[in-house]
């Protein structure tokens, strides 16, 4: 994962704006990707935890995932 900050930008509430780019390895399992994103958002950026599968941004807005990631065929795996 990579993270970059634009130090000169500020949001409507005056807080600094952070932008993050995430590279997902081909073949990565969607549940693993969501788990890692949730940890990055909550632990790394201080975003609220949210409920269910919803990923939340720092200010509590829902974070949408790219349609290409969501349209991948999922395979069931027994553990």
Structural commentary:
With 79 residues, this protein is of the alpha+beta class. It has helices at 30-44, 67-70; strands spanning 2-10, 16-21. It contains 2 helices and 2 strands. It has a two-stranded antiparallel sheet. The two termini are 26 Å apart.
Give the neighbour order of strands across the main sheet: 1-2
Helix vs. strand class: alpha+beta
| Distance between the ends | 26 Å
Helix content: 10-25%
Mean pLDDT: 74
Shape: globular
Task: Give the key terms.
disordered N terminus, 79 residues, two-stranded antiparallel sheet, alpha+beta
Task: Describe what is shown at a glance.
With 79 residues, the protein is of the alpha+beta class.
Set down the secondary structure blueprint.
Blueprint (H helix, E strand, L loop, with lengths): L1 E9 L5 E6 L8 H15 L22 H4 L9
Antiparallel strand pairs: 1-2
């Amino acid at each position: 994962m990579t993270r970059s900050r634009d130090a000169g930008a500020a949001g409507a509430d005056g807080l600094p704006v952070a932008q993050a780019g995430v590279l997902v390895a081909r073949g990565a399992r969607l549940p693993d990707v969501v788990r890692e994103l949730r940890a990055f958002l909550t632990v790394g950026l201080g975003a609220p935890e949210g409920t269910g599968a919803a990923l939340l941004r720092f200010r509590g807005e829902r974070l949408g995932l790219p349609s290409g990631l969501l349209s991948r065929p999922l395979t069931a795996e027994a553990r």
